[in-house]
Amino acid sequence: ALYAKADASFKAKKYEEARQYYSEFATTFKKHANTSSAIFWVGESAYNLQDYGKAVLAYQEVIEKYKSSPKYKAAILKQGMAFYKIGKDKAGKAVLQDLIERFPTAPESTRAKQFIKEHK
């Protein structure tokens, strides 16, 4: 129910509320199948609130702890994009290049290539 509430808040563009619900879910249900997704959505909520530093940290948690998560590649992509948003272009590009090299056929890599092109 908590995860559904978080999703509903996010869809309604109530990002601060969504971030709180996703955080609560991730803290309460550490071993749940949706925990990595909840942490990813904490990052997405922060990203949409233009709180890119917090977004980077949330994506980093997914990258470090949930390598088999369906959100793993998306977390790398969004972390790279968030680095650009806070003016750390070199870090952002390094993260995106790493994604492209490790997962060349992934849709996230296609998006990463496009993003790098747009931010030269």
Describe the structure.
The chain is globular. The N and C termini lie far apart (43 Å). It has 120 residues and is mainly alpha-helical. The mean pLDDT is 97. The longest helix is centred in the N-terminal third of the chain and has 14 residues. It contains seven helices and no strands.
Structural class given helices, strands, pairing?
mainly alpha
Alpha carbon gap, first and last residue: 43 Å
Low-pLDDT sequence parts: none
Helical content class: over 70%
β-strand number: 0
Strand content: under 5%
Average of pLDDT: 97
Could you give the order of the helices and strands?
HHHHHHH
Q: Helix tally?
A: 7
Radius of gyration: 14 Å
Q: Sum up the overall morphology in one term.
A: globular
User: Main β-sheet, in a few words?
Assistant: none
Tell me the quaternary state: single chain
Summary of the model, kept short:
With 120 residues, the protein is mainly alpha-helical. It contains seven helices and no strands.
Question: What keyword list fits this structure?
Answer:
120 residues, mainly alpha, 7 helices
List the helices and strands and how they pair.
Blueprint: H1 2-11, H2 15-28, H3 35-48, H4 52-65, H5 72-85, H6 89-102, H7 107-118
